[in-house]
Every structure is written in structure tokens, then in C-alpha cells.
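forwarding from the other thread:

> can someone predict this with MGD?

sure thing
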Amino acid sequence: MDKTEVKRVHCGICSPCCPMDVYVRGGEIVSIEGAQGGLCSKGASSKQYIYNKERILYPMKRCGEKGSGQFARISWEEAYEIIAEKLLRIKAEYGAKSTVFYTGYPKWYRPALLRLANAFGSPNYCTESSTCFQAANLAWKSIYGNDICFPDMMHAKTVLFWTSNLYHSNTPMSQMYQNLKAKGVKIIVVDPRKTATSCEADVHLRIMPGTDGALALGLAHVIIEENLYDKEFVENYVYGFEEYKKYVEQFTPEKVAEITGEQPEKIKEVARLYATNGPAGIMFSACTIVHHINGVQNYRAVQILLALTGNYDVIGGNPVMAGPTVSCNEFDQVKRYDKEEAIGEKDFPVWFDLSCEEAQCTRLADYILQEDPYPIKAMVSFGFNRRMWPEPDYLQKAMKELDFFVNVDLFWSDSCDTADLVLPACTSFERDEVKVLRGGKVGLSQKAIEPLGESKNDIEIIMGMLKKLGLHDEVLEQGYESYMNYILEPSGITTEELRLHPEGLPGKNLIFPEEKGYLKRGFDTPSGKVEFFSQILWKYHDTYGYQGLPEFLDFRETKEVDREEFPLVLNTGTRKPHRFHSRVYRIPWLAGLEKETLIEMHPQDAARYDLEEGEEAVVSSPVGKMQGTIALSNNNYPGIVHVYHGNKKGEANDLISKDYLDPISGFPGYKSYFCKVEKNKGKECNGI
Ligand SMILES: Nc1nc2c(c(=O)[nH]1)N[C@H]1C(S)=C(S)[C@@H](COP(=O)(O)OP(=O)(O)OC[C@H]3O[C@@H](n4cnc5c(=O)[nH]c(N)nc54)[C@H](O)[C@@H]3O)O[C@H]1N2
Ligand SMILES: Nc1nc2c(c(=O)[nH]1)N[C@H]1C(S)=C(S)[C@@H](COP(=O)(O)OP(=O)(O)OC[C@H]3O[C@@H](n4cnc5c(=O)[nH]c(N)nc54)[C@H](O)[C@@H]3O)O[C@H]1N2
Ligand code: SF4
Ligand SMILES: [Mo]
């Protein structure tokens, strides 16, 4: 009988990268346990993720029509040869920028892919962050100049969870939430729905999605009117306070109550609590406030509250990041090649001014189909899934137009069908990988089993492409082991040491920023101050209509959509513990937890449209339809319909218009579009 070995692996399904003890016998994983507490349902299902029948095991080359799904197995050598031949020909004919380098949610190989794009000479490195986090970061940078600061909850007296239902979207952090409660920290939650997080809060502000900006301006109104703001900070470090003060005058609690649907008294209570019971931190979501057509300005309004109340860069408030906290290889600080115009640059100039280290690709399908700003002919993608984007069929149509498209993925999705080549990546269980852990520790995720089939780790695939293309990158050329050591360099630890301590070691020479660092370094904004009135946005006032102040625009006033026909607000993608975008529908245990595509509504709305719990129905929007099963709960906000995305049986993104975008960030209005719901009489719905 083979000996059982235990390996320390970090889960690769989502960003907490939870450590796991993986029991391996005879080259197979026999069981998986959480190494620091329990695992969420997805992590606990890891064996079904790894040994899934939809795993891609060999390099595959298309042999039928594009989209036909007919592929034949080839060797890695042949795959690299095809890539080199096609990409070099396209580069010679249309220039390097005609090739787009793209990655979906996985973060761990991103700097290596950016290195490949740079070596190739394309400015078009882009990621799924064209719909996630970057808009929040952009809003933040337009005010404070540096990267977004998360709350220091350990030392806070009040924490404002502006969305973020940790129990569902960041399970490991929910323990920390319990600790806050136990310590008596005051908790405020802003969320349209009742959630596990909001139910335990001291105050829950239930607002109409997309009205966060109005709420934040209303809080500011009370804070200024009642003289609860930090005058010293405002006088010395804020640019545009007078204009801002004048603007918020109109956001009385009564007016804000009308816009948001919350009570004026509760708005006042929260303003007083947040401003006076400090230090107070705000926990932001990477996406919820910015998945709206006024997302950046709404987010700016929220983020300004920190400076207004003296909670910026202080212990217990939102201090400038105390060392690395993200568990990806963020020590490789490679910068994007930006000597040429990237896609998205004409449409969303502030994205680029604020040095977002990637191109903005939400309108990729338009850029391909309209050859605007220039022909896009090839795409090298790692984890491309069209279902994450508005109108995914339109995107699929554009992908068919490419001269060459290679997709590297773990699983065969219907986005692979339009590729010319599909290459097999391996999971985190099948590779060694260095990890930057919380609190400045570094660790090693150990390879537990050999890669299944002929799958390889993404960085080795990138290295293989680089070599065959005859390109130069001094870091990648050294091979994977050296690359891991390169990433580790700032920590002063080597892979050799980590192999002896896979659970992690503290970085030796990491420098942590000090509180109130702005006293020494100032603010990296045009005025050198915290900009309540953004000069960068105002620069584009005449050409793009951007406002310098965090102006609130109500999406419900849109003229583009007939509200009589589509009276309900469509909110998509609220995280569920057993879903992860498009990925885990294929896991039997998780699929069993929610067998139908749910159309979640408030019972009042269902009654109005004569719909019943468990009934089959069709949701329609101005651009599409989808079918599902009605699920009623008082936890939903009246007037809102919620559907999850990434599901080929009933795709929420079929309903979202590709043109319904925030004009500053380019983020789709995933969380406030319009729809109606009807009985599914004929079961005639599209694509099902
Ligand atoms: N299980 C699981 N976890 C995930 C993911 C996943 O797919 N599955 N995805 C990961 C990713 S990519 C991201 S970006 C994060 C997102 O993380 P979060 O944004 O924290 O996601 P949610 O838990 O959905 O929390 C959002 C809450 O916002 C509320 N909400 C919806 N619209 C609005 C609005 O307009 N305003 C306000 N104030 N609240 C609103 C919803 O009711 C919900 O309770 O989650 C990450 N974690
Ligand atoms: N309607 C609606 N749409 C949304 C959202 C919403 O709330 N509502 N949320 C948006 C947000 S915040 C995000 S972050 C995006 C997420 O969008 P995506 O990143 O596209 O989503 P995923 O399904 O997580 O992953 C994409 C692909 O990566 C593959 N993959 C996973 N691990 C690896 C790996 O290690 N290597 C390789 N090569 N491939 C891998 C998966 O199999 C999958 O096919 O969706 C956005 N879309
Ligand atoms: S929260 Fe769950 S899926 Fe995410 S890393 Fe942890 S165990 Fe994996
Ligand atoms: Mo995201």
C-alpha cells in the first residue's frame, strides 16, 4: 500500500486562497481539509473541481467550422508552432497591437502574461477587471492619488460595510465579522437586501441599488450641517470643499429618503454614528457600487466620507495598506507597455490617466467588429469566458471574426468553441506556486499531484509561447523556479527556504507604510490634495461631460428604456456561497445545492404580476430573454429582480445591454438595468 503524504496547497478557486491540507496516496488526492478552519462549499468540493469530466487534458486544435466545437488533439510542440506562426504573421501585417492578451478572474499568473504582452509589443493587456475592482480603484485614485485603502477592522470602533456580504463572498472573513460583533464594534451595513451580514448589524440601511451616491451625499449633508466633520483635515488637505459643501446642501435626509427608499431618521443616525464613533473604517466591495452607469461618481461620494470624517490613513479607519494583503504574486510590479494607444483609451481616458495597469476591454466585441480604433485580429487568452460580459452572444460573434484565437483554460466552456486552439491549464493542486500571504508573510502552495493529462501551469505555458515566438524577457527566460524566486525577492526569502516551511515565513525586509504617511509624501493628485472636486475628471468636462464633483445621476431617469414596458429593476450577480461566476455550475455537489435558475423577487412584485413561487417564468429586458423559476423572499428589495450570471441554462448577461455602461469606467450596469417578468407559457425562450 502506498504511503499517504500531506501537502499544503492554497485553494485556487477564489482570492482568499485558503490553505488546505491535501492527502495524497499513489499520485491521487484522497481527501482535502481546511488547514486554518473550515472550507467553504466550493473548497470542500475541490476534488470534483480537479477530477471534473469537463477538464481540458490535451492541447486541442479546431478542425471544423468556428463555433462547431470540432477539435482534434495535438502535441504541445505543434500548438506552440501554430501560435508562433499565426501571431508573427498577424504582427507583421497589422502590428503588435492587433493582438489582445486577456485573462479572466485568476490572478496568480497575471504579471507573467503582462510580460508576454510587453515582449510582443502590444499595449492590449486586459483582464476581467474591466468589470471588477478597477473602477473602485479609479474612483479612489481620483480623490486620494494612491491605491484603495481597506479598513483596519482590528482597531475600529465602527465599521461601515458598504455592501459586502462576507458570509457569501468572502467566507474566511466572516469569522472576523463575528469577532467584531463579539468585541462590541458598531456595525453599519448598506445593502438593498437582508443578508446574513445585515441581519447582525446595528443599523441596516436598505437602499434601492444604484442610489449609493445619493445616500453618501446625504450622509455628508448631515455631517457638515451638524458640524461633525474634521475641519482641520478639510482645511489643510482638501481641494474643492466649498463646491462640494454647496452641492450636498440639496441632499437633505428627506430628499435622500425619497431617492433611496430609506428613512430620513436612519440616515441621520448613521451619519452621526459614523462621524462621531471613530475610528471608523469603511469596507468596500470590489464591484457592487460600481456595477451601475453612475458607478464611479457614486463610489467617489462614498469614499470622500473618509476624508470628511478624519478616517483616512489612520489606525482603525482606512489606513494606507499596511503591507501586502493580497494573496497573489503582487511582488512582480511589471508595468504595461503604453507607448501606443490601447483599446478603450479613447472611450475611457481617465482609466488610463489614473495609470490603471491594463487596457479597458468591456467594448472588445465592438472594437473587433468595427475595427475601431484599429483592427484587432488575434487574442491570446487565459480563462476567457464570454458569459461574464453583457450580451455574450454578440461577443461570441466577434470572437468568430478573429484571425486567430487561443484560449487556455481548466475546463471546456462554450467560449472555447470559437477558438482555433484550446490549451489545458492545471489547477493549484498540480503546481508549486509562491504566495504572498496576509501580514507580509510568504508561503508555498505545494504541488500535490502531477498535472492531469498533458495540462501545464499557466506560467509555464506563457514561457513556452515566449520562447517559440523568439521574444525576450529576462525574468521569464530563466524558467519557472527562477521566476518564483524573482517574485520572492522583495521578501528576502527563497523557494528553498519555503520548501522547508510551506506554511509560510515572515518577509525579512518588507517596509510597512506608517499612519498619516501623507504628512511626508502629500497626495499624488493634480492639486496635491484630497480632491473632493476631481481635476482629472473635470479635464474631460467639455469633451466627455464628466463632472468634477461626485454628482448623483439617477439611473431610473434614463430616456433609453421604456419603463412602462420594463417596470422592474434588474440586479444581477449578488454572490452566493455555492456559485463562482461561470465556474462551479459543473461541480455535482454544488449544482445539487441549487438545481434551478432562480428568478428572485419580492412577494409583492410577484403578486402584482400574477407569479407564484416555483413557477417557470421568463425575464425580458430591452436586449434579451432568459428562463427560470420564481423564488420569492421578503429578503429581496421590492421592485428588484435578481438573477445570478455565468449559467448557460439561464444567463443573466443575455439581459444586460452591452451599451449600458458607466461613461467614466466603462463598467456595465449589471446591478441596475430594467426588465419585466412573465409566466413562461410556451417555454419558447431563446437558447434553452
Ligand atoms: N461565493 C462567491 N464569492 C465571490 C465571488 C463569487 O462569484 N462567488 N466573486 C468574487 C468577486 S469577483 C467579487 S468582485 C466579490 C464581490 O463581493 P461583494 O460585492 O461583497 O459581493 P456580494 O456578497 O454579492 O455582496 C454584495 C451585496 O451588495 C448588495 N447590492 C447589490 N446591488 C447593490 C447596490 O447597488 N448598492 C448596494 N449598496 N448594495 C448592493 C447585494 O444585495 C449583496 O448582498 O466577490 C468575490 N467572492
Ligand atoms: N451579470 C453579471 N456579470 C458579471 C458580474 C456580475 O456581478 N453580474 N461580475 C463581474 C465580475 S466582478 C467579475 S470578477 C467577472 C468574472 O468573470 P470571469 O473571470 O470571466 O469568470 P470565471 O467564471 O470565474 O472565470 C473565467 C474562466 O477562467 C477559468 N479559470 C479558472 N482558473 C483558471 C486557471 O488557473 N488558469 C486558467 N487558464 N483558467 C482558469 C475558468 O474555468 C473560466 O472559464 O464577472 C463579471 N460579470
Ligand atoms: S473561500 Fe472557498 S473557494 Fe475561496 S479560496 Fe477559500 S476554500 Fe477556496
Ligand atoms: Mo469581481
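The longest helix spans residues 76-94. thats all i got for now
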